[in-house]
Write a sequence for this structure.
């Protein structure tokens, strides 16, 4: 696959393709068993009345070949909003052409233009190809931080406490 890539916001009607790529990402991360979202969920989240999550897509030769799904967060220490990159994915056959970097650059440009404090994300510690890309663009790991999560029964129990 050759050709230039266009990075732009996702449009209504593209949610099914985005879900396909999210499923491929879940499969790659060995987490497909956790994938329950469908196109209707993405349509509501991305294109509903008050979206709180956003998606940029990479288009090459008229085909969506990657995406970056993100939302705004806030740093109390900086006193400024930032962007949390929830997921980034590029189709295997499109990798190595700078598409992931183009998606990240679009988010970095948004951060600079909107005077946001930072761009952050998680990466699985075994995902060496992604880590290599992130190091190449200047990202640094956050040493000493451990992700915490409440979900399911534990989340409900705390809510009822």
């Amino acid at each position: 696959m050759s050709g230039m890539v266009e990075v732009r916001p996702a449009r209504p009607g593209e949610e099914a393709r985005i879900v396909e790529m999210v499923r491929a990402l879940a499969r790659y991360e060995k987490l497909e068993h956790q994938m329950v979202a469908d196109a209707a969920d993405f349509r509501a989240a991305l294109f509903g009345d008050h979206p709180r999550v956003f998606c940029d897509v990479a288009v090459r030769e008229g085909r969506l070949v990657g995406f970056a799904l993100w939302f705004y967060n806030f740093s109390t220490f900086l006193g400024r909003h930032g962007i949390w990159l929830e997921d980034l994915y590029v189709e295997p056959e499109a990798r190595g052409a700078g598409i992931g970097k183009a998606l990240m650059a679009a988010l970095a440009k948004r951060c600079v233009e909107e005077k946001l404090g930072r761009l952050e994300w998680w990466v699985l510690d075994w995902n060496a190809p992604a880590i290599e890309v992130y190091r190449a663009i200047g990202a640094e790991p956050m040493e000493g931080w451990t992700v915490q999560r409440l979900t399911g029964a534990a989340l409900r129990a705390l809510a009822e406490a």
